[in-house]
């Protein structure tokens, strides 16, 4: 009795590797998105702190207002840049999800083929065992029948 061997096992292993790589790429992109979102929150908090600090101090000198305005402008520029980075990251995540879905589909197709081939192999193997058992039974029955007939003749 031969052991089951899937002829496309190496291809299945390759597809498994591709699937893991695509999952890792998506996880990295999602981590990048999380970092960008945290940075956006930090910038908003810095902006709020600077505003509250300026207004809490009461009257501010012209140089302080100028420094505050430059700081606000720099924060606004960073927020705009961050907005672009977030949009790019979200676009990359959408594209990566599509690649991941394709990799999952390719992997699942091969797994299903392997399962189907295994079921077919089990069925044929069981049939072979059953045929062998039938042949053994018939051979034994024929031998016993011949022994009984020879005993009756003797």
What would you note in describing this structure?
There is one protein chain. The protein is an all-alpha fold and 154 residues long. The protein has helices at residues 9-56, 62-153. Helix 1 packs antiparallel against helix 2 (62-153).
Distance between the termini: 42 Å
Total of DSSP H or I helical runs spanning 4+ residues: 2
> What percent strand?
under 5%
Rg over alpha carbons:
37 Å
Pairing-aware structural class of the strands and helices?
A: mainly alpha
Helix content: over 70%
Question: What average pLDDT do the residues reach?
Answer: 91
Q: Care to count the β-strands?
A: 0
The biggest beta sheet, please? Answer: none
General form = rod-shaped
**Any low-confidence stretches, pLDDT <50, length ≥5?**
none
The helix/strand order is: HH
Pick out its properties.
154 residues; mainly alpha; 2 helices; 0% strand
Short description:
By secondary structure, the chain is mainly alpha-helical. The protein has two helices and no strands.
Write the layout of secondary structure elements.
Layout lengths: L8 H48 L5 H92 L1
Helix pairs in contact: 1-2
